[in-house]
Amino acid sequence: MNLRTALRPFAPLALLLLTACAPAPIYKTAPGAVTALPAQVAHAPEQFGNGAVIWGGSVVSVRNFPDHTEMEVLAYPLDSSQRPRPNAQGAGRFIAIFPGYVEAFNFPNGSLVTLSGQLSGTRAGSVDQAPYVYPLMTVAQSHRWTAAEMRAGHPNISFGVGVGVGIH
């Protein structure tokens, strides 16, 4: 019997333990919620109407207006805890519209956020010199992730054979 065969019965237990470490999602997904990514919504907004969405990503900018605040976000896919996965490929950009005033200092550029809200159309704009269509989301709830929250549920366990040097 080789090592792989001997360890096979423990695989479900290991998966269960790793899953148990992951934090629960922060927002409840509404029935019929839009699961498309921002780039998909930008290409065919008529297919998605004013559906509920939960999107996240990295803050690009925050702009305050007299009656609302707009946050441009570079979207990333979300993990099972609804945390953005910044090491994944970007999934488009969107503009999150907050009613009232939001302090830009609390959402510095590069902050990771998860936002829950309703689609509210699109807006033509540009990214640098390139034309771009931004899906608009009216925000109901927002969460800025701390470094500790992003690490939570990600055990520092690795398996391998060999010699290595790590600096922490």
Automatic annotation (TrEMBL):
Pfam families named in the record: Slp
UniProt entry tagged with the keyword Ribonucleoprotein: no
PROSITE patterns registered for this protein in UniProt: PROKAR_LIPOPROTEIN
Keywords, sorted A to Z: Signal
Position of the signal peptide: 1-24
GO cellular component: outer membrane
The UniProt record lists the keyword Signal: yes
Record-given protein name: Slp family lipoprotein
Organism: Dyella monticola
